[in-house]
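HUMAN: Please help interpret these tokens:
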Amino acid sequence: MKKILAVVLALTLCLGLFTLTASAETAKYKIGILAPAVTHGWVAGVAYNAEQRCQELADTVEYKLYTSNNAEEMTTQLDDLKTWGAQAIVAFPQWEGMEVPIQAAIDEGIVVVNFDIQINAEGIYLVTGDNESMGVESAKYIVEKIGTTGTVVALPVPTSGSVSELRMKGFTDTMKEIAPDVQIIEYATAFTREDGLKDFTDILAANPQIDAVYSLDDETSIGVLQAISDAGRTDIKAITGGGGSQEYFKMMPENENIWICSALYSPLMVKDAVDVAISALNGENPEAVKVIPTTIVDRANCADYIDPNNTVY
């Protein structure tokens, strides 16, 4: 009888150990993603790529993704993620007023990685691109294509605040250094193809000779290209952009007479934000701020950046 009990006890212990081991092997990190509702293709690309990265890590990550229209809605969603048991949150808090709820989450032991937006919260991680270097690299690209003389139209977007300011600073400072004789004409526009088309149609009518266009955004650049095509202009030799639009990438080899480029500030960077969250959960002490350097994409390398599965941005 004692032998039977011993065998039963041993089997029970083995089963218990197996169950614990299996449970440990199948445990997944719970990661929440907070993104704004789509106001621009680039914003849609952020949510898409964050979700793609979590799906790539399906063996180790369980995730929930929310999009919001304002700070109040995003705060409610953050509370929902806390109730769900999120261990980390990747947030893209475009709305003012997110400092307090995000700080509260951090104070409760949740890892928070902000994407693109820097806010005043202690203990937060940040993954972002380099807006100023986008301007620097775009200036170098234009001079490479047109030389150190000519007329360049720059299209700042004052309503975007520091984004436009930094991209313009990088551009104008670099042009003064490497091509001081280039004439730069500034026209304010917006980060949409509709504004790019409308505003550049007027710009073309007012300027009979333009050698290059410094556009800060891929969507604006798509509108600019349409305006150039509609006007039948052949004087423009280079157009920059910014972001990382699949549609824009596909246009690059199609325009043989214009060098089209994008200074990447890609939504793909949000994948790095997910990786930083996992690194922190693993106790690996990642750097508090990760800045993704600018890469120039044009017809020479755009094939490396085209994702046939990405129909979002």
Notes: The two ends are 71 Å apart (CA to CA). The domain at 131-264 is CATH 3.40.50.2300 (Rossmann fold).
